[in-house]
Amino acid sequence: MREKTYLDNSSTTWPKPPGVAEAVSEYIRDVGCNLSRSGYGTTCVLNRKARSCREQLAELFNCPDLRQVVTTPSVTFALNTVIKGLLGPGDHALVSGMEHNAVTRPLFQLERQDVSFGFIPCDSTGRLDPGDIKALVRPNTRMVVTTHASNVCGTVLPIREVGRVCREEGLLYVVDSAQSAGVLPIDVQADCIDVLCFAGHKGLFGPPGIGGLILDEGLAARIEPLVVGGTGVESEQDAVPDALPMHFESGTPNLMGFYGLSTSLKWLKRQGTEKVHAREQGLYRRLLGGLQQIDGLRILGTQDAESSLCVLAIDVPGLDIGAVAYRLDSKYRIVTRCGLHCAPWANRSLGTFPIGTIRLSPGYFTKPREIDYALEALEESVAYARRRKLTR
Ligand SMILES: Cc1ncc(COP(=O)(O)O)c(C=O)c1O
Fold first, then answer.
1. From ligand 1's centre to the CA of 100, what distance in Å?
2. 220 and 107 in one domain?
3. Do the beta carbons of residue 57 and residue 212 sit within 8 Å?
4. What domain range includes position 112?
5. Which of 77, 248, 311, 387 could form a disulfide with 72 if both were Cys (CB 3.0 to 4.6 A apart)?
6. pLDDT (tens digit, 9 = 90+) per residue, 94-126?
7. The whole model's pTM is what?
């Protein structure tokens, strides 16, 4: 059977860098104890690994204190923690027009508790103008949440400029870096970010099941954790400890995740985010150039490697894009993703709602010949769908 061509790195990066799988299995095979729960030797090894993982994350995002690095099961969990923890009845929030359901769904849930929110418009390429924000701020606006880069079409949002506007307006700024962390530079201080939410399994190249948030203790004290329980310390207290990161880390964390993520972060540091980004930009240009040669495609996003991550979404107007994506998989073993990509509001901004797009997201490990193969296969699959009249 032909090897799969994996073009779904926006969902989760694959393959992982050398050593990540081995680090995960090292925990299972050789370590096998819990964090902070006892004083025996392997616990100390594990505690050191967790600490080192936090140190690496703090360094990557220029966070001044490693205690501010909180791990969660996912970036979705992190976003729910801050959005639900910081907004209450009567409050208003603003989000970009390119958000994932991980941001909009918690806000729609909060609407039932008298929280309101509005969208900062994005144009049909996904671009946001920070100059639009001030006019949308109301007396009860507390928070702005934006993604750093769209998971639908790759468009990068100007987080530093948005952060500055938030500072001027006295608003909290929450950034969803699910797509950008590890690929673009992020500096929580210079970018004026109050809470940075990240995923471990995408551009940070770790295993799934570990993400997190970075925030200072003052802000953390205002947030009720979504989940409370055992923390391994201060067990005599009926309330969960206030100290970070424990405040948000009740229950056994993803211990294998610390091993895998710590290893991938070491690899990432050796490569450097600039090298990862530059390589992905090259792949983006190659893919874009080829897509532009195929008749009848609508290519979404900025179509410019400087303002986009390595994600290209396409529509084939008139045709059933599900059938095209199915052929890519069934005939060519090319893994793409088809539909709304959990971001209906981003698709509304792009004009692709409710059908969505076929998303091709190469990653650092994608080979140029895989891009060429995917382009040939896509051209044939579109022609096939046309011939067979596989219309919408
Ligand atoms: C921009 C963005 N935010 C949030 C998420 C949610 O990530 P997870 O499912 O890992 O929590 C994703 C996943 O694709 C994403 O792309």
1. 7
2. yes
3. yes
4. 20-270
5. 77
6. 999 999 999 999 999 999 999 999 999 999 999
7. 0.97
